[in-house]
Design a protein that fits this description.
Layout: H1 19-38, H2 47-51, H3 53-65, H4 67-85, H5 93-112, H6 120-139, H7 148-154, H8 156-178
Helix pairs in contact: 1-3, 1-4, 3-4, 3-5, 3-8, 4-5, 5-6, 6-8
């Protein structure tokens, strides 16, 4: 008879955000993609499609403050960026917001189940991308819908950044846990 230890979720640094913290986080959720859009770039796709900066801030917000602020960061960033930079394209804002919502929900579920690993954020992105793509096909939303294969290939650098952010946050948490914080 083999004994399998139950999976006990590790505590995260979830804390209630003050109004100032929430406002600052939402500003950062807008600012990070905005700064990425300012970088010189001449590729066929916008640089944000490669680096996925809206996912960085949504994941960090989720990690530190939980689902509500992670979702708020995910929903604010595309709309404000559209108003300020014209990206994502107006036709793709709904799809982008849906994809970010699914990303936050997938990452939240995984974190609540005690899943840990550098792959958690990239996996949540892949699940969100696949589900959003499938839903868009079912609903016949063609505007702003990129082909899945090229879109995933373009996102590889962003997936690597998400993996690094995920790992840094885990190490930070491990350091806080061992220090008794």
């Amino acid at each position: 008879m083999s004994s399998v230890a139950p999976v006990v979720p590790l505590p995260l640094v979830f804390k209630r955000a003050s109004f100032k913290q929430a406002a600052a986080l939402l500003a950062v959720a807008w600012l990070v993609p905005f700064l990425v859009h300012l970088l010189p770039w001449s590729g066929a796709r916008p640089l944000g499609a490669h680096l996925l900066p809206m996912f960085w801030t949504a994941f960090a917000a989720l990690w530190f403050y939980g689902f509500r602020l992670g979702l708020a960061a995910a929903l604010v960033a595309p709309v404000v960026n559209l108003l300020m930079t014209g990206l994502p394209l107006a036709s793709g804002v709904t799809l982008m917001a849906l994809e970010l919502t699914v990303f936050v929900a997938c990452a939240w579920l995984a974190l609540n189940r005690g899943w840990r690993g550098w792959w958690l954020a990239p996996l949540a992105y892949l699940v969100a991308r696949l589900l959003t793509f499938a839903l868009a096909l079912l609903l016949g939303w063609r505007s702003g819908l990129a082909d899945l294969g090229p879109a995933l290939l373009a996102a590889l650098p962003g997936l690597a950044v998400l993996a690094v952010i995920n790992r840094v946050l885990q190490r930070r948490q491990a350091g806080n846990d061992s220090a008794g914080v």
